[in-house]
Each structure stands twice: as structure tokens, then as C-alpha cells.
Design brief:
This protein has about 120 residues and is an all-alpha fold. Helices cover about 80% and strands about 0% of the residues. The mean pLDDT is about 80.
């Protein structure tokens, strides 16, 4: 999921950057020579509408960045908890193994009797 969000964020950023370059520089290709006005008045309204969509896309990009941070924090937290649990489990295994090693009956009969008659 995190990888998909990062890919979407990357593509969204590229699209927004391309629009910014177009809006700031290349949009002048639609103007009349010697003027900064768009040739066709309807194009101005179309471009303004497109710019509104890019404002929304910028908000979405910000939301996606926030979600990525939240997912990454959750992953880090789960990783830390998992490491702690593994550490506790390993410590319990070693203490149990140590306890079993210190309990050594003198012979096998003593061990069987200890197991069978200890109840």
C-alpha cells in the first residue's frame, strides 16, 4: 500500500510541476504576438478552470504525503513492538533452557521417577 501511495505521489507531483511550468511560461504560446493576453477569450476560462483542478490536486498531494507519513510511522511502531516481543520471547526461551540444563537427575531412573511420581 505504501509503495502504491508513493508512486501516486510521484506521478501527481510530476503532473503539478508540468502544469506550473506550462502556466508560468509556455501558456504564452497561446497569446498574440507582443501581448501577454490569451488569443481566444474562451481559452482563458478553460485554463482558469484547469488551474482550479490543480489547486485540488495540490491538496490531494498534501493529503497523500500525510498518509504516507502515518503509514510509515505505523510500520516503524509495529517493527519496534515486534522486536521487543521477539526479544522477550528469546529471553524466556533462554531462561527456560538454562533452567532445564540445571535440572539434571543423576540417572534416567531418577528422571522417570521424578516425572511419574511427582504428582
Amino acid at each position: 500500500m505504501l509503495r502504491v501511495l508513493r508512486q501516486i505521489l510521484h506521478l501527481l507531483s510530476k503532473s503539478i510541476d508540468s502544469w506550473d511550468v506550462f502556466k508560468d511560461d509556455e501558456i504564452l504560446y497561446f497569446s498574440t504576438p507582443g501581448s501577454n493576453d490569451i488569443t481566444q477569450p474562451s481559452w482563458g476560462s478553460y485554463l482558469a478552470e484547469i488551474d482550479k483542478y490543480f489547486v485540488d490536486l495540490r491538496r490531494s498531494r498534501s493529503d497523500i504525503q500525510h498518509q504516507i507519513e502515518l503509514f510509515q510511522n505505523a510500520i516503524n511502531l509495529v517493527s519496534k513492538i515486534s522486536a521487543s516481543i521477539t526479544g522477550c520471547f528469546t529471553a524466556n526461551i533462554f531462561s527456560t533452557l538454562y533452567a532445564l540444563q540445571t535440572f539434571r537427575p543423576k540417572n534416567l531412573n531418577d528422571k522417570v521417577e521424578a516425572l511419574c511420581f511427582s504428582q
